[in-house]
Amino acid sequence: MVYVNLPEIGLEGEWPVSDGERTLAARLLPLLPAAPPPGADGPARWGVVDTALRTVLEVIRDNGDLLFADAAAVTSRPGRVNMIDMPFAIGRLFNEIDTYHRLWLSRGAAAGNEYLDSCVERLEPEVAELRRVLAQAAQA
């Protein structure tokens, strides 16, 4: 059992990792981008956050057959997380970011960049935690 605490992404609860999820987590880890180097600028840091989340979303989407083979991996319950929940949570997050980014951009490019910087501050620690959670799931 892996505990997931990613409130910004929208995933919180216990994750009873299935065999398919363990396999997929192990496949996913080497595809995630490395953390940005210390002192990296905002766009580079956003690029890592964006790429990591999109990679998780796409790999899970492309390997749904592996997840749907195990009924336990597709049953949602309050306080539980499964890998199938992840793309939905990430999709909602991207929709929210896109909506607010457009609003901030209406005030100018600097405001849009300021908003993305705030997203990086909120999400960078969660992407690192997501990597740790996936590594734990791969070993579960």
Task: Write up what this structure looks like.
The protein has 140 residues and is mainly α. Helix content is 66%, strand content 7%. It is built from six helices and two strands. It has helices at residues 19-28, 42-62, 64-68, 71-74, 85-105, 109-139; strands spanning 2-6, 11-15. Strands 1-2 form a two-stranded antiparallel sheet. Strand 1 and strand 2 form a beta hairpin. Helix 1 (19-28) packs across helix 6 (109-139) and helix 5 packs antiparallel against helix 6. The longest helix has 31 residues, at 109-139.
Which helices and strands appear, and what pairs or packs with what?
Blueprint: E1 2-6, E2 11-15, H1 19-28, H2 42-62, H3 64-68, H4 71-74, H5 85-105, H6 109-139
Please sum up the structure shown.
Helices cover 66% and strands 7% of the residues. With 140 residues, it is mainly alpha-helical.
Binned, the helix content reads 55-70%
State the assembly state of the protein chains. Answer: single chain
Number of strands: 2
- Give the radius of gyration: 16 Å
Order of helices and strands: EEHHHHHH
The spatial strand order of the largest sheet comes to 1-2
Number of helices: 6
Shape estimate: globular
How far apart are the termini? 7 Å
Question: Structural class given helices, strands, pairing?
Answer: mainly alpha
Main beta-sheet strand count, sense and barrel state: 2 strands, antiparallel
Beta-strand percentage range? 5-15%
Give start-end ranges of low-pLDDT stretches.
Answer: none
Overall mean pLDDT stands at 92
